[in-house]
Amino acid sequence: MIFIKKKFLPVILALILVLSSCTGRGTLEEYDADVKVSVADTGRTLTEKSTRKLSTERREHSYGVAKNGMPHQISVDAQKYFSSLGMNAFCYDAVTKEKVLYLTFDCGWENGCTSIILDTLRDKKVPAAFFCTLDHIDAEPELIRRMINEGHIVGNHSANHADFTKISREKMADELRECESRLKTEFGYTPTFFRFPEGAYNENALDLVCSMGYSTAFWSCSYADWDVENTKGGDYAFEKVTSRLHAGAVILLHSVSPDNAEALGRIIDHARENGYEFRALSEFPL
Length: 286
Fold this sequence. Notes:
Blueprint: H1 9-21, E1 59-60, H2 73-85, E2 89-90, E3 100-107, H3 114-124, E4 128-132, H4 134-139, H5 141-149, E5 153-156, H6 169-187, E6 193-194, E7 200-201, H7 203-211, E8 215-217, H8 234-243, E9 249-254, H9 258-273, E10 277-278
Parallel strand pairs: 2-8, 3-4, 3-9, 3-10, 4-5, 6-8
Antiparallel strand pairs: 1-7
């Protein structure tokens, strides 16, 4: 048996604490899905799941092209998968019986189209969600303020449009916190919805986002509208979007597209004429 004099105990205990802090368990190690963390700056108390292993396999969200008013099987399977995880992630509304639609936009930069889109939404009385990066929030404060003042949802799209499958949990949290902090500080607004840049995610990232109090919005209706060097006109946008509508669809459009800005009013009118109702993401049955 080894006897230690009382006067040395404080020194030994301090050494033990220092050594234990170097093991990595007190930090957010890359791809460590089991580590626990509390993130105080968000105003929420967070304890990440540690009861199960979370996959770090990269997934790229795919929705399939809906036809004849029905979601593609890819979207159906994706929604079942999200529901099975219990992490408040969704790509379409498989619960609501009515023909509802949820209109969302991704906003990484401004191309002179957002104010036109907002005018249409105001005139048609349609709610939407705008997922914004930090750069867009900083560059276009008046547009952000208008979105909020006119009752739209402003979603967190990360600070730097990062690939969440390639960064640590700590960096994921930083990406969310930076964007959230700016919205709180500058606009008194707290975002509650998140969208992964380019739809790249894994279970580990979904868990981190959920633990920070967010619901993750994917989509089930979209088209290639982000390339402003390859615009094809409002008629093209109208045909692509309306042909892919289905009950419960979460529609993803990009606010930089002049085609979308031109066609949006007609898309809304066509949807309503065919029995669809536009609802806000805040009404989504999670």
